[in-house]
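Input/output pair, single chain:
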Amino acid sequence: MRPEKIGRVLGIGLRVAGRVAGQRIAAGTADAGRQTAASAIPTAVAANQRGRAAGRAVANASRAAGGFFRPFRRVGGILWLEVTGSFFLLFVLFFAQNLWRLRASWAHGADHSRFLLYAVLTTVFLYLGLSSFWRASRR
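Output:
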């Protein structure tokens, strides 16, 4: 990711967080002035209004957090694919080692079925490991 894009994303996240904080501060001062009027409203209606205001504040905060964490989610996904690919390639090393040890039984022999099993497992895990790195490079 280019540095300009990271700065842009973080700037947007900070602006949204600042707007949410400003709205909450403004709502707090407006609620202080309306407390005398709120005593005339039945308590159920006042509780409903407070609940809706809290819901809006939570929604705004979650939107701000989502904007802030978006670049980290992308980097985390790439890192996850690379770690997974490395894990699969460790299995490739193990199976290839056994495959090399049983190479004398490739056509026929006592360990022919084990040789074929190791060959298939090496191929599958090699595909999984390389495709994971390929997907990480495409992101």
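Helices lie at 3-33, 35-38, 43-101, 112-138. The radius of gyration is 29 Å.
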